[in-house]
Amino acid sequence: MKVYSLGSGSKGNSMVVTNGRNSVLIDAGLSPRTTMTKLSQIGILPHELDAVLVTHEHSDHIRSIAEIAAVVPVYSHTETLDAIGKIVALPYKQTMEVDEKGFRLGSMDITPFRVSHDAAYPLGFAIKDEDDSVCYMTDTGYISKGMMRMALGCNKVVLESNHDKEMLIRGAYPEYLKRRILSDTGHLCNEESALTCVDLAKNGTKKVLLAHLSENNNLSELAYWTTRSYLEKCGAGKEVTLRVATQRDTVLLS
Questions:
Q1: pLDDT in tens, 30-48
Q2: Considering the entire predicted model, what is its pTM?
Q3: What is the DSSP string of 101-135?
């Protein structure tokens, strides 16, 4: 399977997972025009998507959800769908309620799982097909044992590396926002992501895409080298392909 980050960061998040037969969009947080343009650039038309998997209802994850929902079914937890419905109207026939039991789309087996974020019912997704697997977990304040069970053994993992603690603490954000980001329902810092990557590498993960970087409290180079240094210390530096998703660029993890 290929993972395309169409854009990831504070201003919007959207990724495509495709195996060539089936394709899903995870979140629709970019503008409609940007989403359509970037889908076209990777050779996928909106109506060719099998689903949009929505992690949660924050604006940087649902900015173009109404436009996408006109042609593609939206899958999420019922509490998230209800929360989205208070923000934007979605076609009733285009919404699909999901839970941790999972479901199948073509040759993809998709298992939602709970993450820890200040939203109605935030989710991550584990996606498996015949010979590959992808785990997507961003927008979480910590990595629970249950989340790790979903990610361990997956060949590819999309993992949040939101902020550098020192940049956040010394930065201009108001104190209440700093506390929110640092809380168990906030976002992962670079060191927490790096430690998670070490555990993943020890259990078979070969490719990691660091995502949802803060534009004010992180740098791509800092996120990359924090995780890379941890991987090298545990002896997995040469075994793991590490990439960083950015806000503007389309980044491929194949």
A1: 999 999 999 999 999 999 9
A2: 0.96
A3: T-EEETTEEEEEEE---SSSS-EEEEEE-SS-EEE
